[in-house]
Amino acid sequence: MTTTYGHNKESRPVDKRNARFLDKVSGFLYTAEISGTDFTPKSCIGGFTKLTGYPVSSFMKDNFYGDVIVDPQDAKPLHKFRNSSKASTVPRNFTYHIISRSGRKLSVTEQVLSIKKSGPIKLIGGVVTLSEKQSQSPLNGMLEKEKLRFQEMEKLNKHLLEVNQLKDEFLANTSHELRTPLNSIIGFLTLITEGYYEGDEELRLFTRNALDSSYHLLDVINDLLDISKIESGRMQLQIEKVYVDEIMEEIYSLFKVQADQKNLTLECVTLESPLFAAADVRKLKQILINLVGNAIKFTDKGGIVVSVEAAGPYLRFSVKDTGIGIPREKQDKLFQKFMQVDGTATRKYGGSGLGLVISKHLVEMMGGEIVMESKGTGLGTTVSFTIPKWTKEDT
Ligand code: ADP
Residue 150, Cβ neighbours under 10 Å: how many? Predict the structure, then answer.
């Protein structure tokens, strides 16, 4: 606690209770005389140095506070406020800015009581504290430049926290998605090697299950590698002239058996022919495999129509099914990693929750857009995406 009695000036000690109060706030208490344009400090107590960065002795120099510390824009109004005090035993407040020694602009509130017997006005209990709002925000008191840097750092920090959280979620989900098929492989192979099966049919069933899980595991691993490649910008595309009819035929023969097994119809229609896309042929197939695979997976009755048509400078591919549909509020979210309408561990349909994310990335990398539409649960789903047409300039 610093109590300074001015340089040979008449001074009066400040009430100790005020001093204790000032210990708790960022501010100081002063007494002074004011006459015309002159401000003559008499005493200064509390955290003047803490607030302004200047030694208390500088406050005791006539007019130093008003001339040097108070923001030049506020100096006149402050002087007017103090001068107009006359005699007021009711405390009055005035908010203005000071520039601290390190160059920080701070908003402070000064509360004064004044006495005027004769001669100069005597200000007592001039309490200067950081304005309330400001002391709550870390931004207050910073220079514009510092504020911007602080805000940038805060944004970056928030972003890093989010990324970290996503990474944690990603790892938790990933390990679950990898462990599930692996546990199944180990489980069935254990049953087989321990001889826990009756007859060839059961042996085949166990082996089949282990094999299915291996393929599933391979799919998940490939999806994860793809995502990681895409997100780190390492996924390279080889854009070439792709004859769309050929792709449609391939998709048909790839999925016909699966569709038949579920008693679903499958049609692959090229609405105009010939159509050529400017695409990476493997990636284009990968997208269609994801979408048609989903359509068959999530459809139990009816069928799937895969179609392609010209749409301006693009080709529009659509995969339409009569399946379980998607509630409207979930439609946007499905293009996020691991998002599934039914995300519970007991869900009916398998899958990694990565197919749509990868498809979206691949479509966008090739210069197109992907959208998902469903009128709601039970009402089927259509996923459409565009891919640029092959033009002469691409040759
Ligand atoms: P996965 O199918 O491996 O779970 P996807 O990213 O391909 O992952 O799909 C995410 C989710 O979107 C699916 O789990 C499902 O809930 C929903 N979905 C995708 N396609 C369809 C569809 N044709 N019909 C109904 N739901 C779908």
Answer: 13
CATH 3.30.450.20 for the 27-129 domain, yes or no: yes
> Alpha-carbon distance 254 to 80, whole Å?
87
Three-state SS string over 157-172 comes to: HHHHHHHHHHHHHHHH
Among the atoms of ligand 1, which is closest to the Cα of residue 325? 25
User: Does the beta carbon of 359 lie inside 6 Å of ligand 1?
Assistant: no
pLDDT in tens, the chain (395 residues): 333 333 334 344 545 555 555 555 567 777 778 777 778 888 777 678 888 888 888 888 888 888 899 999 998 888 888 877 565 556 667 888 999 898 888 888 777 766 666 666 666 556 666 664 444 455 555 567 766 777 777 777 777 777 777 667 767 777 777 887 788 888 888 888 888 878 898 888 889 888 988 988 898 888 888 888 888 888 899 999 999 999 999 999 999 999 999 999 999 999 888 999 999 999 999 999 999 999 999 999 999 999 999 999 999 999 999 999 999 888 877 887 766 676 654 456 666 778 899 999 999 999 999 999 999 999 999 999 999 999 877 66
| Distance in Å, CA 353 to ligand 1 centroid | 7
Determine which residue's CA is closest to atom 13 belonging to ligand 1. Answer: 340
Single-letter residue type at 95: T
Ranges of each domain in the chain: 3-20+236-394, 27-129, 172-232
Nearest Cα neighbor of 98 from 126, 70, 73 is: 70
Q: How far is the centre of ligand 1, averaged over its atoms, from the C-alpha of 256 (Å)?
A: 20
Domain 3-20+236-394 has CATH 3.30.565.10: yes
**CATH class belonging to 172-232:** mainly alpha
Looking at ligand 1, which residue's alpha carbon is closest to its atom 20?
A: 294
What is the DSSP secondary-structure string of 115-159? E-SSSSEEEEEEEEEE-HHHHH-TTTT--HHHHHHHHHHHHHHHH
